[in-house]
Amino acid sequence: MSITVKSAPTILLTGASGVVGQALLERLAGCDVVCLTHRKPVAGHRVTGLRGDLTLPRLGLDRAAYDDLADRVDVVVHCAAVTGFSVDPGRTNDLNVRGTEGVLAFARRAQAPLQHVSTAFVARRDLTRDAYGSARPEVYLGSKRLAEQAVADSGVPANVIRPSVVIGDSVTGRIAQFQGLHAIAGALLRNALPLLPLQPDTRIDFVPQDLVAAVVAGLVRSGTTGGEYWVTGGDAAPTATRVVELARALGESLGLEPDLPRFVSHDMIDRLVRPVFMAALPKAQRRRLDDMLAMTALFHTAEPFAGTSHHVPGVRPLTTGDLEDAFTASMRHYARAKGLTSPSEVAA
Ligand SMILES: NC(=O)c1ccc[n+]([C@@H]2O[C@H](COP(=O)([O-])OP(=O)(O)OC[C@H]3O[C@@H](n4cnc5c(N)ncnc54)[C@H](OP(=O)(O)O)[C@@H]3O)[C@@H](O)[C@H]2O)c1
Fold first, then answer.
1. What pLDDT, in 10s, does the model give residues 189-238?
2. Which amino acid residue places its CA nearest to atom 1 of ligand 1?
3. Residue 342 pLDDT exceeds 70
4. Best residue among 38, 86, 88 to mutate for probing ligand 1, ranked by most atoms within 8 Å of CB
5. How many CB atoms lie within 10 A of CB 39?
6. Domains along the chain?
């Protein structure tokens, strides 16, 4: 379905302070963007913040503010979500499912098309188990599947956008908040990653945040709806071996001397590491290990993701080289932010 979009539409953006939202704000220059903020404020040219809460009726706005907003908005972009695997299931479902239903009701009232940001990992069924200690990936994935279903059932003209793991900007590495992949590669840089629960040839599918932003912004401007867009590395995603090599090469260029981790199976972690070492680890480290197990389980398939972001006007597919460069930029930014660089690198 194609809808005529004004040359400078007014956009309602949820999740503007988050990873995808921040990258998107840069791409929406020239549009009036109303951000439904929650805790963190946002700023920018032609950007207005409106404090709300998607878990409350009428997006947490009073009746007059809700109606006024609905009368002004031309397009809705929904990025807000609970993304952590260790968050209480009630909170996850409140925002990801009921919050999406509230956004759909708003889009219907505003007669505005919806760009709904989901995750590529909705397709990875039966790879994870219910719980890795405190990490419960299926709670998050289940909520994102239910949200997609709500979009499909709503009758609201919409696109569903499914990124894989989002890393920082492809050039600067900048990101609103470091992600699980940063934590794993960061542990390697610190020489604190003796074991990695992955197969060496597993593809690690990630995309730079500017690709996700380009896809969403392109869809906002195109006016087409009814599509599903996989924003993934797909066939170009590098293997775990390659990602580890890239992290080590970066470490060496920073004057660090990281060792390569040993690739191990989840089964080995369960049989040998968990019973012997887990109880002795501090709570924060146990949680990090559980998060890493939950995340790496989602890569355990030979099947690459589909990749359709290049179907959006102005967006080209990324090569393996592009993805590798983006990973290095992202980890270089991480290393600087965490003070992992040698003094000469900081001076540069
Ligand atoms: N990051 C990834 O690797 C990744 C990968 C694939 C798909 N995705 C999807 O991409 C979308 C954006 O993810 P992200 O990584 O950008 O998320 P994020 O960085 O965790 O940000 C979440 C956003 O949701 C807002 N929010 C939280 N509770 C809210 C509430 N009750 N009402 C209104 N807003 C609320 C937050 O605002 P405050 O901070 O002010 O609370 C924040 O702006 C999500 O749909 C996610 O599933 C992300």
1. 999 999 999 999 999 999 999 999 999 999 999 989 999 999 999 999 99
2. 166
3. no
4. 38
5. 7
6. 10-260+286-343 (3.40.50.720)
Three-class SS state of 311: helix
Q: Which of 261, 133, 268 is nearest to 187 (CA)?
A: 261
Cα of 80 vs centre of ligand 1, distance in Å, is: 4
Pairing status of strand 262-263 against strand 195-196: parallel
Which of residues 285 and 80 earns the better pLDDT score? 80
Which pTM does this prediction carry? 0.95
Indicate which atom in ligand 1 lies nearest the CA of residue 163. Answer: 6
> Which residue did the predictor score with more confidence, 224 or 128?
224
Distance 189 CA to ligand 1 centre (A): 27
Distance 200 CA to ligand 1 centre (A): 31
Rounded CA gap, 231 and 212, in Å?
A: 6
Distance (angstroms) between ligand 1 centre and the Cα of 17 equals 8
